[in-house]
Structures are given as C-alpha cells and as structure tokens.
Amino acid sequence: MKLYLLRHGQTDMNIAHRLQGSTNTPLNATGEAQARALGEEIKARGLHFDRIYCSPLQRAVRTAELATGRDPSAFRMEPSIEEMHMGDLETHSYEELGPTFMETFFHDPAQFVPRGDGETFPELIERVSGFLEALRKELPGEHILAVSHGAAIHCMLAAVEHTPMKDLWKRKVDNCSLITLETEGGPYRLIGR
Question: What percentage of the chain has pLDDT greater than the value 90?
C-alpha cells in the first residue's frame, strides 16, 4: 500500500500564526492556488488514488477537491485525521499565547498541557496511529490519499518513524506538501516527499 499524506493549503490563520485546531477555516487565495498547482503535479506524476480520506474541516476538503479534481462526495470524511483539538487555545496567536506556550508546544511537546477540552500530543499520536493501523490492515495494495493538517501529519510521521517527542517538529511539513509512505503489511516506511 502507498499512503500519500497531504497537508491542506494555506489559510489566513496560517499567515497570522494563529492556532486553528478544530476551528473550521477556509483556504485563502494562496491556499487555493497551492492546491491547484499540486493537482497539476499529481497529474504530471501520473499518481492515482483508489481512496481519498479527508479531514472533515473545510480547509482539508477544499484542498482535496482542488488537488484531485474530484467532488467531495467521493471522499471518506475521517474525523481521526482532523487537526489537533486545541481547546481554549484555538484562534489565539503565538504572540498572545506567549513564550511559555511556544517553548512547550514547539520545543518540548511532551510537556504541553492543553486548556479546556484540548488534546495532548500523546492523545493525538494515538488517534492518528489508529487510522494508520486500520489502513495497513484493511487496504493492502491500494493507493490512498489522506488530506489532513500540520500537527496531525507530524504526529503520523512521529508514529511511523518512532520520533522522540522532543523532535516532533523537526521535519518540515509545508502547506500542500505531499509525503509518501509505503507498507507491504509490515511497518510503514517514508519513501518520498
């Protein structure tokens, strides 16, 4: 099985360095252009997807629609690959949250404590790992596209590569980047970006 992980295109909250989490924000004009450009790249590379799983948040759905040229009715909406639920931190900017937040969230995620009904990183890793494991067991040989979010994809990669929590953010996952994983029934391997 090949699994292609796609982060949604740019939003205004990305530019403003605001935590989106489960807040349902749209792509901005740049994000729409990124998704269309990725669609051209997908065609040029001759990639095909047997199934498309998509976070139900609109920025992911619109990215999937523009990048694949398919109607959203063809997507399997998958809550387990939604962005990290950030509780009372959502919509706040990094500046508003202050240096203590920045230090723990980005540099020591194991110590990050959410506010309100937010998730911890271990909880997010467990959630997305369940999705990865189900695909691995149920869909051998298929080519799958999963359209998700920054923290969720970082946690998927951490689960696959057994990344120490302190290194969670070291791999860059830009808006509309496409990352390829492969499995032949055993563990996933990262094979391309």
Answer: 91
Is 107 a known active-site residue? Answer: no
Annotated active-site residue in 8, 85, 149, 154: 8
Tens digit of each residue's pLDDT (9 = 90 or more) over 146-167? 999 999 999 999 999 999 999 9
* Token code pair at residue 132: 């990865």
Query: Residue 105: CB partners within 8 Å, gap ≥ 6?
Result: 112
First vs last C-alpha separation in the chain: 16
Amino acid type, 173: V
83 is annotated as an active-site residue: yes
Question: Active-site residue among 65, 82, 83, 90?
Answer: 83
> Torsion over CA of 18, 21, 25 and 26, rounded to 10 degrees?
100
Q: What global pTM score does this model have?
A: 0.96
